[in-house]
Design brief:
The protein is α+β, with helices and mostly antiparallel strands. Helix content is 51%, strand content 15%.
Amino acid sequence: MRRDLFEADHDAFRESVRAFLNREVVPHLAEWEAVGVVSRDLFTVAGKAGFLGMAVPECYGGGGVDDFRFNAVIGEEAIRAGATAAGLGITLHNDVALPYFLRYCTEEQRRRWLPGIASGELITAIAMTEPGIGSDLASMSTSAIRDGDYYLVNGAKTFITNGINADLVITAVKTDQKQRHKGISLLVIERDMPGFERGRNLDKLGLHAQDTAELSFTDVRVPVGNLFGEEGQGFRQLVANLPQERLSIALAAIASAGVALEQTLEYAKGRKAFGQAIGSFQNTRFVLAEIATEVEIAQTYLDRCVRALNADELTAEDAAKAKWWCTELQGRVVDRCLQLHGGYGYMTEYPIARAFADARITRIYGGTTEIMKEVVGRSLGL
């Protein structure tokens, strides 16, 4: 069926993104995979090309277009280019972190941060997870104690995407240790603040070009002017932004599944066994028919979710459905596609092997499948 989500402007944008990736990203992928982090220059080059901060108002140097379809194009094309890990830093910057700056910044904060976010000179991250707490954010121990015009921040975060490169880290802290959810606030901690240190760039199963770090805070003096909104609003702010984050992950998952299908179809047509192409075997046809059906049906739901997000109508429950279903589907698809590649599928020189490793995290970050089902289940009155 014809996909009707995008219009002519998005198609032209897609061509520009594809050319940008082939020129500025693909030649460096092996190097970035080896060192575990992309060059900071990737962000400034992307900013100059207009691929960062599309929703940032023009008066702050952005594109002035609040249309998530442009975000979707960048995510899809990064995966198609084999740059899933490298592209994740950009989608984190655009899809996950930026909405906080757009929704909760004061005018002074907007002037201070948005131009650099749009240009790529200020790289963003968001720090929620702590060692040992997993999805239980209310149990976080990172504290922010008011001290005059500053907060004194102490604690640690882990699994932070863009953690090595980030200049602005939206950090979930406890401003009231006696409260659980109502004690959470969001502070922006900046790169050079004394006491803010980055630990290891974590060695992961997949997504090797994406810097994922441990962060620590020891008596970091953060100006009160770096607080989003008011004290105690942090959990509500996080919840309000999670649907877009989860939709971004779901879109990437289906894009990955679609690319795996295309690669496997090509392989099945060319690889021969018992004197004939493996694609001619009934089992192969049935497996690929099932994958093609499931991917297209999931894509249709996601496109509806994108329209709902643009209309400010995407609910937490619908985003949770998209996130858990599409990431679980991604896992099934890349596993079955790898199987059809036989022994070659286990070789990292084949894209399907990298896709298999990269896919495993999507069922965990942004909210695990189990948490997503809990969100949906509660919406049913259970």
